[in-house]
Amino acid sequence: MTTTAPLIVDSFASLPPEDSDSLLIGDDPNVGRIATHAQRAAQVECTVLITGETGTGKEVWARMLHRLGPRRDQAFVPVNCAALTPTLAESQLFGHEKGAFTGATGASLGVFRTAERGIVFLDEVGDMPLELQAKLLRVLQEGEVTPVGSSTPISIDVQVIAATNRNLEEEVANGRFREDLYYRLNLVELKMPPLRKRQGDIPRFVEYFSRKFAARYERPVWKPSPDTLRDFCEYSWPGNVRQLGFVLEQSYVLECEPMLPGQQRPSGESVDLPFTDLAKLREAAVDQALRATQGHKGRAAKLLGIHPNTMTRLLQQLDADQSSSDC
Length: 327
Fold this sequence. Notes:
This protein is an alpha/beta fold.
């Protein structure tokens, strides 16, 4: 059997943004090739695998593919595979019949039938359990799902876009990801580069986020000094574009100069805070980090520049404060 080699795309496409939240910014030399491959994949409606570190804009690209293709007027249904409930994952994806299990008081369509004629975006597909991977492979091969509690397959018409921050080749080698599913998903690969390899684009991201959050919070646009901008360009940004955006938004929320994670503000420097209640300030920062990382506590801690144990203690304290206020 002949295996089709995947198309490899090495960075973001510089496509004209269609909304204010687009992160498709930059002058990477390969952007034309990326745009060509993305357009082709969108038009032929094939499976696409978007790879890259956390925060590099994988879902942004998936939504761009949706807008580029003939399914643009149909549903785009994102699924965080890492958050699927282990005991109910099959039902959540493929649906179930009434009475299929305890608590199934009615039938459910599931993600794939809900997205009929549209796109299912499987985020963090590398975290999907092996037993569920086999069922997903059948969906991709046969174009049909079998609801839990039924023996009758149902034909579906969906395009699948998957994303992961894991190295799936290593996952396959270690027996944690099915090789046949990997090749089925990897017909076209869009490979998102980390921000540290796009230092020349950082000034444009800084300007983009500064203007965006200045408008949102009705504050002046931040214009960094040359030295500060150089420091931003030389920082490694482990959380990538998402982390950069968070740092800048946090500065607008706190009404202070943006600072790199881990930096200490010079002693004596005053900060005009919008909150007089420090507990509210702390709660706002933690909530903002959790929203930026879709609830992932470890990544939120990294964005805030604190240890995960500190994040755990903060959340426990916030829960305690909330409980006290409810009494």
